[in-house]
Specification:
The chain is of the alpha+beta class. It folds into 2 domains: 69 residues, Glutaredoxin (3-Layer(aba) Sandwich); 127 residues, Glutathione S-transferase Yfyf (Class Pi), Chain A, domain 2, CATH 1.20.1050. 55% of the residues lie in helices and 7% in strands. The protein has a 4-stranded mixed β-sheet with strand order 2-1-3-4, with helices on both faces. Helix 1 links the parallel strand 1 and strand 2. The longest helix has 23 residues. The two termini are 24 Å apart.
Length: 211
């Protein structure tokens, strides 16, 4: 009997959230193995590398960058690229990960430690983020500035949803990449700002996939 696919994941990772929602959309039953921020021992043992998300399918690892196209071949329907618009879907997914996520992450980063599992993981997280981004108290002091920039980009998503329930009219990789980019805001326990009701409704639709 074939084993269920396993997704090695981390709830604070936008790429992991995207992979999780992509699997749910594809109606793939899978198990999730949480991978701590500071400890990749189990992941390395299982896959030979240390990056999440990694999908193990049929005993073989599928790297994060290959997951969408792998799933599109393994489970073609429903498609991640409606109307054949793969280029547009992947470009918007990239925007979600590379542009939107950075704006959300800067706002959310100082509120992430309480959602981590233990003090050791929290210490490593804060140490690594401080090295990359500067003093914690400065990041905290700039949160209002970061929020304004985040809201400007969430406003772009609101505009994308003006005429349809989904970014491309049907669920696509664009939705899951952009939702992943927004996800740190939800992970720290905040809601979509009230200025963006269409984004809030869209997020609920994505969360409901696979239920």
């Amino acid at each position: 009997m074939a084993t269920r696919p396993v997704l090695y994941s981390m709830p604070i990772s936008h790429y992991c959230i995207c992979a999780d929602r992509t699997l749910a959309f594809k109606n793939v039953a899978f198990d999730t193995v949480d991978t701590p921020y500071h400890d990749r021992t189990e992941l390395i043992k299982a896959t030979g590398q240390d990056y999440v998300p990694t999908l193990v399918w049929g005993g073989k690892p599928v790297m994060w960058y290959d997951i969408p196209d792998f799933l599109e071949k393994a489970s073609p329907k429903p498609s991640l690229y409606p109307w054949g618009k793969k280029g547009l879907a992947t470009t918007l997914e990239h925007w979600g990960h590379q542009v939107l996520e950075e704006r959300v992450w800067r706002y959310a980063v100082t509120k992430v430690p309480p959602v981590l599992h233990d003090d050791r993981e929290r210490w490593v997280f804060e140490e690594m983020q401080t090295r990359a981004r500067g003093p914690w108290h400065i990041l905290e002091a700039r949160r209002q500035e970061f929020r304004e920039d985040m809201n400007k980009h969430l406003g772009m998503v609101e505009t994308m949803l003006e005429t349809d329930k989904w970014i491309l009219g049907e669920p696509s990789l664009a939705d899951f990449g952009i939702y992943g980019g927004m996800s740190p805001l939800l992970t720290i326990g905040e809601k979509v700002p009230k200025e963006f009701p269409k984004v809030a409704d869209w997020a609920k639709r994505i969360q409901a996939l696979g239920r």
